[in-house]
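note to self — DONT lose this again. spent like an hour looking for the file last time. sequence + predicted structure for the chain T wanted, 652 res
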Amino acid sequence: MPFTKFTNLDFDQIKTSIKDYLRANSEFTDFDFEGSNFSILIDTLAYNSYITAFNSNMIVNESFLDSAILRKNVVSLAGNIGYNPRSISAAEAEISFSILFEDTSKSNLPQKVTLRPGLVATASAGDESYTFVIPESITVTPTETKTETGTILSTASFDAIKVYQGTFLESKFTYDGSLDQKFILNNPNVDTSSIRVFVNKTNISGDGIEYKKVDNIIDINSNSRIYIVREVEDEKYELKFGDGIFGKKLGEGTYDDGTEITVKYITTDGEDGNGANRFTFIGTVEDENSNVINGDIDGSITVITNTVSQNGNKIEPIDSVRYFAPITYSSQNRAVTSQDYEAIIKKLYPNTESVSIVGGEELDPPEFGNVIISIKPISGSYVSDFNKKQILSGLKKYTVSGINQQIIDLKLLYVELESNVYYNDSFVSESSQLKTNISNTLVTYSKSTDLNKFGGRFKYSKIQQIIDNVDRNAITSNITKVIIRRDLRTALNENAQYELCYGNQFHVNAGGKNIKSTGFKIFGNSSTVYLTDIPNKNLKTGKISIIKIVNDNEYETVVDSAGSVDYVKGEIQLFTVNITSTDKVSNIIEIQAVPESNDVVGLKDLYITLDAGKSKINMVRDIISSGDEVSGVKFIKDSFTSSYYNGKLTRK
């Protein structure tokens, strides 16, 4: 029998195969391998074959994008299809400050004030302090006023400047003409979007000519001053320059730019720098003659925070590279399909966590020629107006002529639970500890990939199983009810109409009270009011009324027909109303409904998430399992829990 299974990864099977191979030879047909020293040689051969097979398997795995484990191999394979994984991103903030100078003589005051590149301010995010820098100098002209005493006040105002969390660094290289020379930035955590490259000739002062970073060779010729950044081993980055065919070649010739390379860049802590909002100035300023004038600054500098630090992000993980590399390659730098848009937006806006793309033809009514885009950022819930403009501007060169893009704010669909958990007190000393464990488990699940995405799905059977699995001995069962909620962002003191789409059919009680809201106030009425619904006879649609509570379960109608509800489509519309205040902060009205199906889907541009913080866990002692009774009579009387929601009028 031929020995052919060289890649078998089971030691005993390899050993058996060797014995079978030897027995095929007539000299070892009846040989007792186990009772002889020959078994040591067989063990050695089997061990060697096992190690070889294991190494072969690992080498083959590292040759394919889907199975590679080492980051350097994943990045290299992605690079083969033109994908360059995003680097770590520095958190950015917008600040303003003014520097005051005073003197009796105008000639002693600076005519220009320049903020040097590099360190500008420090700020705290959480318990850590971080430094913020600028990558290039900023020069302003001071404004002057004269006091009654003759003193001239000169104010240099630095308004709305962007600062980046990290350290500003500079590296220098000299091109020697060899083919194997590499230009590697040896500092870790480089934000590649901050890299600026200059090329100059030897013994010439200054930085030289700036080169432009490109991702591909489209529209590149032999005179293009370009460079390419590629990730190499240990999350470091290598710069590649032109060869004289694609891109200008470096050199000291008459028509060359030089061989001295200066690289300026920022190393950062990424997402850790997000949230800094109190800044302290520690920068360096100089006058028009390059003299440092920090010592002449009169008094302290107050820094105004226009925008807290945000958009800091970690380096792209391996799983993301595996997912986006193929779809970026298939998009071929054009935005046609939803996957094309997803790949390109991820490249234009690295802070993207999830993207929803809806064609206008899918809307009701249809909007042909439009593409509706909704983006969930990694940090925060909404994309700023500035970033929206940047994304739309970047999309223009990828999109088909005649197609318009529109970025809308994120629509969050919250799922809340009310779970009555039955437990056997023979297996638990404190029910409060068990409740805490359940709550912690729900918080962990709320961060899972089943949810927290467009097109996600909340699976009812899975959540019941998750609760039961917290403690299989103590927990005997759970009766869990599901609520879906949208937060209505109101425009205070304005006449406005509102629409909320839930994307899931509502459960309808013919008596109403299916739609519940938190409190708010409207123009012309000083009472706190709420929303409720009154179904039509067909139980498919109904009207929304604005009510105020008189007693526990009695109300008075303030506005009879304030809107409409479509129970089948899961849509609520409010007619023109002037809302003056809300019980919830940030001008929010929470509006809930009960889904017809306990499996909830994030339809189209709805981003589904489990709100574990507002879910309720009620611990109920299981008197049957605990041994108090076996007939169930007392259980039905005292421990019974309904699987349906009560008829309360309001949401608390």
